[in-house]
Amino acid sequence: MFTGLIETTGELRSRERRGPGFRLRVACSLGPLELGESVAVSGACLTVIAHDPGGFDADVSLETADKTTLGRLPLGAPLNLERSLRVGDRLGGHLVTGHVDGVARVRGVETVGDAWRVLIEPPRELERFVAPKGSVCLDGTSLTVNGVTGDGFDVMLIPHTREVTNLGRLSAGTELNMEVDLVARYVLRYLDVSGADPDARLRDTLERAGFLRP
Fold this sequence. Notes:
It is a single chain. The protein is an alpha+beta fold and 214 residues long. It has helices spanning 62-67, 159-164, 182-192, 198-208; strands spanning 8-18, 21-27, 38-41, 44-52, 55-60, 78-83, 102-112, 115-121, 135-138, 141-148, 153-157, 175-180. It has a six-stranded antiparallel barrel with strand order 1-2-5-4-3-6. A six-stranded antiparallel beta barrel has the order 7-8-11-10-9-12. A hairpin with a 2-residue loop joins β3 and β4 (44-52).
């Protein structure tokens, strides 16, 4: 489990084909690392299989390569890195699993004062999981959804976020690993399990829980 608060950035140093997947070499100063621990690499939870003071190696399965950008990023690409959450750590972002749902694309970047307004086009099947003022994880970074349109959404990037993550290099066409909010995932799954009107079922559930008056 992660928070979406990036600890540091690394660099994709090498990518070797291993069967249907890959072995990545990530150069970074994240350590000290432990063999077998989990690191979110631009949003994808990977297992450290080897490490040294200069970085670590991790394997990427075919599923991860298909669902993320890690199978096609150019060598030298910057990677957002976060070690897994420890019990007792502060949860400054939101709960992030490191299980990427798909690849979103940047439509455009607009300057608003000292911030950037970034327009995002998510995969169509993920649009329903995005809500205004909700949370979304892009390339491992916890962000608040600023607004939602019919087929996309936007987020605001403050200078600090641009400085400490790879999001400071965004431009139209950039691909980003996207993980939807964990709460939204389970709420929509709950509403999908029967054929009844989802609005009526949600209201009934809230009433029974005491949040609404019947």
